[in-house]
Q: What sequence folds into this?
């Protein structure tokens, strides 16, 4: 009887002993697979498509011609026969002093008049300002890193908040420094009549464009490296990046269209 019980125990407890023996290895395997999936993140394939790299900035509308009347010597101002908002034509009288009569050198709008009539004005004091609002352009102030990438002739897309859905187009015509700032002038193909000097617009200067680029999400890049899966093998590889727009990046070398790119875990 005892011998039969011993034989039954040996036979029935063998699977239990095997399961206990292999449990640590099985747990380690499951944990490794989970860690592998987590570290790899989501996989995606490169795609072909267009990409535009642009520099974004806030532009200010400027009048092409601005005239400010200032006296060279002290004088008594007898009359300023114009007011702010008045339209003047070239040759119209705009101010009289005790020794001179001043006429407008251009067609435009009076945008500023000083309250100095009936008093003596010192040299350099502005009496009034006239703007020719028929000719306008956009002026941008850029950081050094951005302005180094801008060249004359680059195209720009302009949008005003007050003109929703309407896009204007222009061209970079001047790049210059002034007062420790770097300025870019954009001549716009056509300004709507209701756009006035000192209004602001969002500007995108097209630095570079590709029509059929090999693209990957920009988040996949880490210091010029990406994790790719090729033929079932995962490895980190260097890539050469071309145009980038913040969301997508063009890959010139290091990836093939059939590769998979592993994105970092969110």
A:
């Amino acid at each position: 009887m005892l011998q039969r019980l011993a034989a039954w125990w040996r036979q029935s407890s063998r699977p239990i002993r095997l399961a206990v023996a292999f449990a640590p290895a099985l747990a380690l395997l499951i944990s490794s697979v989970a860690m592998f999936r987590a570290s790899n993140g989501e996989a995606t394939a490169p795609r072909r498509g267009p990409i535009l790299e642009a520099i974004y900035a806030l532009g200010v509308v400027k009048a092409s011609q601005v005239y400010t009347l200032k006296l060279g010597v002290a004088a008594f101002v007898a009359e300023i026969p114009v007011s702010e908002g008045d339209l003047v034509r070239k040759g119209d009288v705009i101010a009289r002093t005790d020794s001179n009569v001043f006429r407008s050198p251009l067609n435009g709008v009076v945008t500023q008049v000083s309250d100095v009539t009936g008093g003596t004005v010192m040299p350099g004091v502005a009496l009034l300002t006239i703007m020719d609002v028929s000719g306008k352009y956009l002026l941008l102030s850029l950081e050094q890193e951005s302005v180094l990438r801008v060249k004359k002739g680059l195209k720009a897309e302009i949008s005003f908040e007050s003109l929703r859905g309407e896009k204007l187009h222009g061209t970079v015509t001047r790049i210059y420094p002034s007062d420790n700032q770097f300025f870019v002038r954009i001549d716009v193909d056509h300004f709507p009549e209701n756009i006035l000097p000192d209004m602001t617009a969002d500007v995108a200067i097209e630095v570079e464009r590709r029509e059929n680029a090999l693209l990957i999400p920009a988040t996949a890049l880490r210091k010029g490296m990406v994790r790719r899966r090729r033929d079932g093998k995962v490895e980190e590889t260097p890539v050469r990046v071309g145009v980038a727009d913040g969301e997508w990046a063009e890959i010139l070398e290091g990836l093939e269209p059939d590769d998979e790119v592993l994105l970092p875990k969110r």
DSSP finds two helices and 18 strands in the chain. Confidence is low (pLDDT under 50) at residues 13-40. The CA atoms of residues 29 and 133 lie 75 Å apart. The helical segments are 2-40, 144-147.
